[in-house]
Amino acid sequence: MSRRVHVAGAGMVRFGKYDAGVTFERLAVGAARAAMADAGAPRAQIEAVYVGHVFGGPVAGQRVAVELGLGGLPVSNHENYCASGATALREAWMAVRAGLFDVVLVIGAEKMTDRIKGGVTPDPSDLDAMQGFVMTAGHALSARRYMLDHGASREQIAMVAVKNHAHSQYNPFAQYQRPVSLEEVLQARPVAEPLGVLDCSPISDGAAAAVVCSPAGLERLGLGSRPQVRAVGLVSGTLRTGLYDLNEEDVSRRAGRQAYEAAGIDPHDIDFVEMHDCFTIAEIVRMEGLGLIPRGEGARWTAQGHTSLRGRLPVNPSGGLLSRGHPVGATGMAQICELYWQLSGRAGGRQVPDARLALAYCKGGTVSGTDGASVTTVVMSR
Amino acid sequence: LADGPHDELPLSTRGSVFSYTVVHQAPGGRPTPYVLAYVDLPEQVRVLAQLDMPPRDVSLGMPVHLALRTVEQDTAGPVMGYAFTAAEAVPEVVR
Fold first, then answer.
1. Which of A90, A192, A355, A382 is such that its CA lies 20 to 30 A from the CA of B74?
2. ipTM of the shown complex
3. Residues A53, A82, A276, A306: which is the catalytic one?
4. How many angstroms separate the CA atoms of B66 and B68, rounded?
5. Is B58 on the interface with A (CB under 8 A)?
6. pTM above the 0.90 mark?
């Protein structure tokens, strides 16, 4: 019987666009200190550091560890594009579960605004990238097909942005904290038709962190009950051949199943989801891929309010990537902060009533010919 | 690439538009707008390519035809690549 794994504390810096003086290291240190303070974990208690990032450069995690006064510990860097933060958590979860450590620090961090202009792309060597594929274009192709295949409207897809921005006004860590109207989303500058700029998560800077513990670790820190990390799933994409269904999301289905089985849960018992809504349409097709919304119903569910804070299955009470911002390597850990706060009843105006079981989902990158690169699924319970 | 033996298969130069988008913002100095599409070929193969035609002329399911063209200039000269264009626009002699 492997050991339980808990989140002892979490913290983040507000996501946003910071000037050049606010470095990757400073963001990561800010989030790490907030998480350690929340857990009441002094430096001497931390046994290992896991850092997820994409654009931080070589050994960014070690640069951060030194600034935190944690030099000398095992430090590792984890890159799975937008799933990097959650991948770092998975490594920590496995190590604590296996009994290697009792108290570890996990950080997701990214400084994008001084490195990325105009949107993120696959690696330049990728066949699709050579044709002009950008992430937005992939989701635009998905959206146009979804509308045709499922009789969904542009307005229903835009409602994902309206819903998530409505949630964001209660999240002090979100990059954008104001509601937007359906009209604003529809009239926004086009990026890749039919998607406009308000269908897209922004380019952001930020960091988020958590202290992850075994039961013995919780005891060492003098803590009582804390939310549990039940499972962290990780899958990669598979080759698609023939005239496949573009929105089938088999990669999401496999990632969901892996986590549900490892956590020993019935997905119908999930109370809310932090979903990787890098684009409006992505939230819809991924929720369907996970089996949490019936196939082809996601757009209608959103428009009918079923995925709103007071709906039957709230999705992105934090405001999601669309509002919180999307510093790619930090996003997975920001979702973990949200799960931790929600499951601890500390989410304020965006609290999901009586939240007991939650799922966080990230999808990172694309590889030409496949249905994705990496998908992570984190199940946490109160 | 995948499991088991596989054959080389010449692909048709004609297909139909499965989905498309007009890209208005792209990194790396690529000129915009451009039309990017999934084109389905009769051999049950889907390819991603640009459509070399005005966005207003594109529709789902429309027939398109392969066209070689210069996709960029590098230090050694023009780099040839492929795009698709409206099937009607290709002169009979090329077909």
1. A192
2. 0.89
3. A82
4. 7
5. no
6. yes
